[in-house]
Amino acid sequence: MHALVRHGSAALLLAIVINAWPWAALAAAVLGFALASASAMTMLVFMRGLHMPRWSAWLAAAVVFVAILSNAIGGFDVITTTLDRIGMDVGKRRLSLLAVVTVLVTAVALYAGARLANRIIGHSIAEARGFDATQKLLFQKLASIIVIVIAFFFGIDLLGIDLTSFAVFSGALGLAVGFGLQKTVGNLIAGIILLMDRSIKPGDVIVVGESFGWVNKIGVRAVSVITRDGKEHLIPNENLMTQEVENWSFSDRNVRVRIPVGIAYESDVKLAQKLMLEAALESPRVLDSPRPNVWLASFGDYALEHEILAWISDPEGGVGNVKSDVLNRLWVKFQEHGIEIPFPQQVLHFRSTRGDRIGSIAGVRGEGPVGGNEDAP
Hints:
Elements: H1 2-20, H2 25-49, H3 54-73, H4 77-85, E1 87-90, E2 93-96, H5 97-127, H6 133-158, H7 170-180, H8 182-197, E3 205-208, E4 211-218, E5 222-226, E6 232-236, H9 237-242, E7 246-247, E8 255-263, H10 269-282, E9 293-299, E10 304-312, H11 320-337, H12 354-365
Antiparallel strand pairs: 1-2, 3-4, 3-7, 4-5, 5-6, 8-10, 9-10
Helix pairs in contact: 1-2, 2-3, 5-6, 7-8, 10-11
């Protein structure tokens, strides 16, 4: 902003100086060069402030520089005549360098104007009251499309291009849209539909296939989903329309978390369940209403299997950290009250027939076979 004010002030001051006194030709050329340089730098800073591509910003600055300098030394006639002489014949038409420069300058000017209009309209919509974030995003995208269409047809009219000349290519353009741009157009329409029916909104926590995270942005082509690992998945809008999507915060942001816990069979079950409930209630992200609950799920091989059912209202903050916090608190409570958390183990019981036991005892004593006849010495 400071650079824009600085260069703009210099250009304004030089313009006043040039027009305030009838300078000689050399002095006018020197002052014109300075004015052109200041104006070009002002245009460059302005274009970069609109986040325009670097090449377009420099092109606009060069056009401003040439225009102001040529005006200071006598007008555009010399430059335009020279550019018009450089060209070639394409069929029945002549393509000159002046026409190419005119098209480029017009395109850059319209592009910059469209970007500026989109920023102004987007800021106005963002500051508007009475709309939620999803409706504002929808209006911004629709306004952006309308501005681009208006700029396109305005440029066609400004350049004097006859639209009837495109009639020959209308069939080919239709085929290109039907085959080559089918997915792109489908994703664009799907994105608008998603914003209109509000089935998926920025900030929602969704599961699509193996992707789990919160919706960061709904773009023209894809939806940005950020996982808990910080990875950003770009899911095409059309996939969200055709595939099954699990939205954790569609109508209600409350999500129930299941935390499995096993205790030893010898433990005090009532005390253990009380401690589980206390650990859940002490966790800062667990809601008091709906109230957490503890269920005895099953009789396991080596433990009494329980489930702590806790509710949270911010699933975008993650689920695993809630489980970890509750289990850490529960571990401390179990240690204080002597509740044992069992580990996998097996108890083996060996049984044998009565005859095998007697034979084993006789073998240990060194006696002969039971019931057998031995010859006396």
